[in-house]
């Protein structure tokens, strides 16, 4: 992407200064959603309220009800539920705020979020459910494999699809699909650049899931990016979904190669096992990961002290000092009695992104799904959105987002902005 390398360099250049700022609190308070005309920037922060759309609404269509109807899809049960629940909550928080401020183009928003259990087949069932309900656009899926499956269906229907966190390249293989998050290649390349330019390690080991499109995609782009950095990949060890409980072989190879940093482009469940097993064998390298690591602090029966110093690329940190992040964090805590993670922020931003595309295209609920699809996908490359996951976000026609990556480090059991 045109802006990507430049923005990474800016973030990396300031990383040492930002890291010294340490952990900061969030200031509670209200902020106002300010949005202006076409091709404008949306500042999507504000307080939640209870005049929201019903998350379990049924039946009808947008034209009949005078509302824009948004279908949401992601895991709210199962091993990946921490992702889907946060996205769902973030979506609802944004819908509440926008409706309280008068809606979009004079119309309210309504959302119906369905559980896909991080399963491709069930994601199709979820899509059919929200489609029957009358969904005119989709926020989802939350994870890559279901997202790819659903993208086939939305493409057939020409329904606008905005995934908050499906990062595989194939998630946006069709012109009706866009991403809030970085694609896997950009996560891998940015990780290699961040590790190299901050001199975090000289000998790098990688442990990745070769059976998972998310993990293998990031690994491949990391290897390419590493070729331009002053470190050496001394070990690259794979595992599969059929063998992801015992990592002793991979860890022993990393230890024997004297790897001083281990890159983990994997999900938090396996990461927790790896940290535990590394500790039991007396191996204590630096650890660096991507957005799939988010959630490790909530793993049951896991010693979170083992995460001290773990670093990961992420678009959001709840302790960030900017006003938008502080307002969002305060509103989310008030609404859900919990601290938002990056997936909540992705879902929150997704609603405001769709709202800006609706305004840019001057769309209304009486339009057909396909008409809305054409209008919104044409609007996406024309809008700019300031969100909690990035300032000045723009989109290319291939669906990828342009924004600066950010990194956090875990300190005292909390994600802290770097």
Task: Describe the protein.
This protein is an alpha/beta fold and about 425 residues long. Helices cover about 40% and strands about 20% of the residues. The chain has helices at about 5-15, 15-20, 60-65, 80-100, 120-135, 145-155, 185-195, 215-225, 250-255, 270-280, 325-335, 340-360, 370-380, and strands spanning about 40-45, 65-75, 110-115, 135-140, 160-165, 175-180, 205-210, 230-240, 260-265, 285-290, 310-315, 385, 390-395, 400, 405-410, 415. The strands form three sheets. Strands 8-7-9-10-11-15-16 form a seven-stranded mixed β-sheet, sandwiched between helices. The protein has a five-stranded parallel β-sheet with strand order 3-2-4-5-6, sandwiched between helices. A four-stranded mixed β-sheet has the order 1-12-13-14, with helices on one face. Strand 12 and strand 13 (about 390-395) form a beta hairpin. Helix 5 packs across helix 6 (about 145-155).
In short:
The protein folds into 2 domains: 33-182 and 323-383, Rossmann fold (3-Layer(aba) Sandwich); 185-313, Rossmann fold.
Reported by name, the CATH topology of the largest domain is Rossmann fold
CATH class of the largest domain: Alpha Beta
Q: Which structural class should the secondary elements be placed in?
A: alpha/beta
Low-confidence stretches: 1-60
Estimate the mean pLDDT confidence: 86
- The CATH homologous superfamily of the largest domain corresponds to Response regulator
Helix fraction, binned, reads: 25-40%
Provide the succession of SSEs: HHEHEHEHEHEEHEHEHEHEEHHHEEEEE
| Count of distinct strands | 16
Beta strand %:
15-25%
């Amino acid at each position: 992407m045109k802006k990507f390398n430049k923005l990474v360099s800016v973030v990396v250049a300031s990383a040492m200064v930002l890291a010294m700022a340490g952990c900061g609190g969030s200031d509670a308070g209200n902020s106002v959603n300010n949005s202006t005309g076409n091709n404008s920037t949306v500042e999507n922060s504000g307080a939640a309220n209870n005049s929201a759309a019903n998350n379990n609404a049924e039946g009808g269509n947008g034209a009949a009800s005078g509302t824009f109807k948004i279908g949401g899809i992601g895991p709210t049960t199962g091993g990946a539920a921490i992702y889907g629940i946060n996205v769902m909550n973030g979506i609802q928080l944004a819908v509440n705020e926008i409706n309280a401020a008068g809606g979009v183009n004079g119309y309210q928003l309504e959302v119906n979020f369905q559980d896909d259990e991080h399963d491709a087949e069930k994601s199709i069932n979820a899509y059919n459910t929200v489609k029957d309900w009358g969904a005119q656009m989709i926020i989802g899926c939350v994870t890559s494999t279901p997202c790819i499956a659903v993208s086939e269906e939305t493409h057939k229907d020409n329904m606008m699809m905005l995934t908050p966190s499906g990062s595989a390249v194939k998630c946006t293989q069709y012109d009706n699909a866009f991403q809030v998050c970085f694609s896997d290649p950009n996560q891998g390349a940015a990780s290699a650049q961040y590790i190299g330019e901050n001199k975090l390690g000289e000998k790098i080991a990688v442990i990745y899931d070769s059976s998972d499109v998310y993990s293998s995609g990031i690994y491949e782009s990391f290897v390419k990016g590493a070729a331009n950095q002053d470190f050496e990949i001394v070990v690259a060890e794979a595992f599969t979904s059929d063998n992801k409980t015992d990592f002793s072989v991979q860890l022993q190879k990393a230890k024997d190669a004297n790897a001083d940093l281990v890159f983990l482009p994997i999900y938090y469940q396996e990461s927790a096992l790896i940290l535990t097993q590394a500790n039991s064998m007396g191996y204590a390298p630096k650890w660096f990961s991507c957005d799939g690591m988010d959630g490790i602090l909530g793993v049951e029966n896991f010693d979170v002290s083992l995460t001290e110093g773990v670093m990961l690329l992420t678009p959001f940190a709840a302790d960030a000092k900017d006003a938008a992040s502080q307002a969002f964090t305060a509103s989310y805590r008030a609404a859900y009695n919990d601290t938002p993670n990056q997936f909540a922020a992705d879902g929150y931003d997704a609603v405001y992104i769709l709202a800006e595309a609706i305004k840019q295209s001057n769309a209304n609920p009486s339009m057909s799904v396909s008409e809305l699809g054409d209008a919104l996908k044409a609007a996406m490359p024309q809008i700019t959105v300031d969100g909690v996951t990035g300032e000045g976000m723009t989109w290319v026609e291939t669906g990828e987002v342009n924004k600066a990556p950010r990194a956090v480090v875990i300190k005292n059991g909390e994600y802290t902005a770097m």
